[in-house]
Amino acid sequence: MSDIKKNLHSKCYEIASKKVNELSSIIQEAQDAANNETKSSAGDKHETGRAMAQLETEKLTKQLSEAFKLEQTLSQINPELKHQQVGLGSLVNTDNGIFYIAASLGKLELENKLYFVISGVSPIGQLLIGLKKNDSFSFNGKAYLINDIC
């Protein structure tokens, strides 16, 4: 299970890095477009367009900050570390799914298996943190039994 964990971690890091690169590119393009735009004779229309572009850039900058946080969280995880109890970097095999406690990336498919990549501060992540093999928990009315932790 540890090779799967390494591959899963690598895929998560790849996704986070891709988000950072894409958002950085989009922000740069938006800033270049705003800088190249000259003031038209329709002054108010131009100012409205600039304000909307500024709001969009702010929104993208916030998304970029979140992507950096994902990357930073993932860089703190040693995928080769074996866990006895659930914590950051744990791969948790339950009777109702496999969870990787890392960052909020959602469902990922790897080697024809589905993994739920979640943050330790997510609702289900908070339930999992500190649990051990053979512990059980309930989430949204569904019971889970921990079969293994890696």
SSE blueprint and pairings:
Elements: H1 2-36, H2 43-75, E1 91-94, E2 97-101, E3 106-110, E4 113-118, H3 123-128, E5 136-139, E6 142-149
Parallel strand pairs: 2-4
Antiparallel strand pairs: 1-2, 1-6, 3-4, 5-6
Helix pairs in contact: 1-2
Explain what you see.
The structure is a single chain. The protein has helices at residues 2-36, 43-75, 123-128; strands at 91-94, 97-101, 106-110, 113-118, 136-139, 142-149. The chain has a 6-stranded mixed beta sheet with strand order 3-4-2-1-6-5. The longest helix has 35 residues, at 2-36. With 150 residues, it is of the alpha+beta class. 49% of the residues lie in helices and 21% in strands. The chain has 2 domains: 2-75; 91-149, no CATH class. The N and C termini lie close together (7 Å). It contains 3 helices and 6 strands, in the order ααββββαββ. The model has no long low-confidence stretch (mean pLDDT 89). The radius of gyration is 21 Å and the shape is elongated.
Task: Output the keywords.
150 residues; alpha+beta; 2 domains; six-stranded mixed beta sheet; 21% strand
Radius of gyration: 21 Å
Number of helices: 3
| Helix and strand sequence | HHEEEEHEE
> Mean pLDDT, nearest integer?
89
Low-pLDDT sequence parts: none
Terminal Cα separation, in Å? Answer: 7 Å
Tally of distinct domains? 2
Helical content stands at 40-55%
Strand adjacency order, main sheet: 3-4-2-1-6-5
Shape: elongated
Largest sheet: 6 strands, mixed
Number of strands: 6
The secondary structure category is alpha+beta
- Beta content comes to 15-25%
